[in-house]
Amino acid sequence: MDKTAKSKLVSDIESQLDDFFGDGLGDTSSPTPSLEKLKSAVLSIDWEITDACLSDMITETELLMSHFEEDPVTHALLRMLRGLGDYVRKRKARSHPDAIKRVMSVFANIETLINDTHLEKRQRKNIVAKEIQAFKKLKQQVESQKPPLRGAPSQAISTQTPADVAALLEHHKFKQAMNAVEERLGAEMKSLKAQVQSLQKQLAALRS
After folding, report:
1. 117: exposed, middle or buried (Cβ count in 10 Å: 0-12, 13-18, 19+)
2. pLDDT tens digits along 56-75
3. Which of 103, 109, 117, 192 holds its CA 20 to 30 A away from the CA of 35?
4. Cβ of 103: how many Cβ atoms within 10 Å?
5. What is the pLDDT of residues 99-154, one digit of tens each?
6. Under DSSP, is residue 201 helix (H, G, I), strand (E, B) or coil?
7. Residue whose C-alpha is closest to residue 84's, from 117, 120, 131
């Protein structure tokens, strides 16, 4: 391969890598994760619960989740915050009274984990462990509010209003849809990473 052709190939591969990482002109990459934007959304929810505020909180949380994939402790709290946001957005006024308190607490600890670089590993784990316990307690309280599902189907349905049945079905469909989206995104990210690694190897070989 002559020098001109080799240079063009290197340039083409670098351009493809720029597209993957969003470094080129006409950047179409996802917005940069911002703890301040998430904080603003969370504080807005504390003031007034609206679909817009909840959507902003969930969006910013998901951006930070992708940024902290290699930090399982912070990632766990971000997943918890997203779950709480989904729950409140779905139930709105019917949400458990403690749900917003949990949102505030979880975010406060996310902020601590990200900003306090002097925390020891044990301290970080303790923070998450306490939030998990509180989250499980809230989940149990929420579950206790749901109509019982055991027993004869006719009896279970007879104790529920049509709105309750519809909400329950919506909840299951929502969980299934979210699981499907997460699986698809995971597969896409795995494929993209493989493509990037392949391009990087080609580029390294050409430069050697």
Report:
1. exposed
2. 999 999 999 999 999 999 99
3. 192
4. 23
5. 999 999 999 999 999 999 899 999 999 999 999 999 999 989 888 876 655 554 43
6. helix
7. 131
Measuring CA to CA, how many Å separate 192 from each of 24, 79, 135?
17, 23, 34
Return the ∠ at Cα 56 (arms to 27 and 21), rounded to 5°: 20
Distances (CA, A) of 98 to 2, 132, 137, 176: 69, 14, 10, 25
Residue 85's Cβ-count burial label (10 Å; 0-12, 13-18, 19+) is: buried
Q: What is the mean pLDDT of residues 149-177?
A: 50
Question: What Cα–Cα distance (Å) separates residue 155 from each residue in 142, 147, 160, 162?
Answer: 21, 11, 9, 14
Q: Where are the domains of the chain?
A: 19-142, 160-208
**DSSP assignment of 11-74, as one string?**
HHHHHHHHHHHT-SSS--PPPPP-HHHHHHHHHHHHH---HHHHHHHHHHHHHHHHHTTT-HHH
Supply the pLDDT for residue 110. 96
